[in-house]
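fold-stage: in
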Amino acid sequence: MAAVTIRNLPDETHRALKLRAARNDRSTEAEIRSILEEAVRPRVHLGTALRAVGRGLGGVTLKLVRSRTPVDVPDLR
């Protein structure tokens, strides 16, 4: 696995990374790995993935009609 050295990191940035890592209950090094991983491999949200599938199939047309009927809320007591 590769190793990276970051030089000239401002003290304020390092403190902010340490605080963020503590909030996420992980080491500063693990937090930096997480930040870098997300920066280069952003997660695709479900809606975006479904849109891509629809486009790959030539598009999908949905007729959506919003109901104005009130919803009965069940009593869960």
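fold-stage: in (second)
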Amino acid sequence: MRKVTIIGAGPGNPDLLSRAALDAIDIADVVIGAHRALVGIDVPPGVVRCELVKTADIVAALTDAASWLRAVVVMTGDVGLFSGARRLVETLSGDAQVDVCVIPGISSASYLAARLARPWQDWRFVSAHGVACDIVAEAERAGELFLVTSGGEDPSRLSGVLVQAGFGDARVTVAERLSYPDERITCATASEIAGQTFDDLNVMLIEFAGGAASSRWPYASSGIPDELFIRGDVPMTKQEVRAVALAKLRLTATDTVWDVGAGTGSVSIEAALVARAGSVWAVERNAAGVRLIRENADAFGCGNVHPVPGVAPEALAKLPVPDAVFVGGSAGELPSILEAALEKNSQVRLCVPCVTVETLTEACALLSGSRFKGFEACQVSAARAEAVGSHHLMKAQNPVFLVSARGAGGEGGVR
């Protein structure tokens, strides 16, 4: 049986390779890795050396090199922290004739912690390397954040975003070219880091003392008071209804959410505060509503809210796969909106608010059908105290029915 050993090379200096990693290289027939990962590594004479990065190219090289028995794939950093090793292991594990072994390396996080002479067990880890990063959302969570930024977001730009959001006093450490002779570590506030220039090979450690002073809702609970939203003539789902709707959607921190007929964006904001590591796509046909969604997202620091001008279901076609969908307004297109959601995710979670009896009847008929499970319908009737002279009277709000279910994963049609 052939053996592929995937090695974590650490921050870059070959002196940090483990003894086990060096032993694997010494007996290898093929050594593969990115140029930076292979620089300085002594590959034995006669060993095939390939400078490759992409998983598909690595697998193709291993397939073409028919005579090898022992191959080594060298990857920068540690194979367990935002590494391409995960995909490579999954791909190679499908070959019964290949035994895959993984040898960890020193991560840039543990190396930086050692250079700072401090523990790192309480750090959160986020990558901005080729992926979107909502740095303001991370700031709202407070604590210590280790951010992989090499080849991705620039530390100066990220710090500038923090300054604009009211986190200019966050403590930022930018580590450039860790483990190399020209290594540089800069510690300052976000305000001081913004505008500086850094090497492309860098990572960041950001320490947040707490939420920004301008944060409109510093709590983990839902049900934001209506008056905290920027309002206009566009309809808005009320506080009590939002709180129950969020419970019905059963959101997680990483969910992708559609808010169809988003209005002012009040549900979008509530969902975005729960799904901080996810995203919310607020679809609204009214131009004034789209502007309000943007204004409210900025006011609440929700960079993960994405206003989508357009009409459903056409506007839904290019949206990412949803985990949950709130249909705040359907304009008579509820069946096609549900169909669009199910086509993307046959197990999507759905919640439809109904003000009229006709919409309630339609929603119940659809969501209790064979393509759904967990059907629920409830009425939210709230009354609020209003001052009348020296006393307060309870004034009833319009009742709203919430119909919810999740896709059953079947193949039947929505009718």
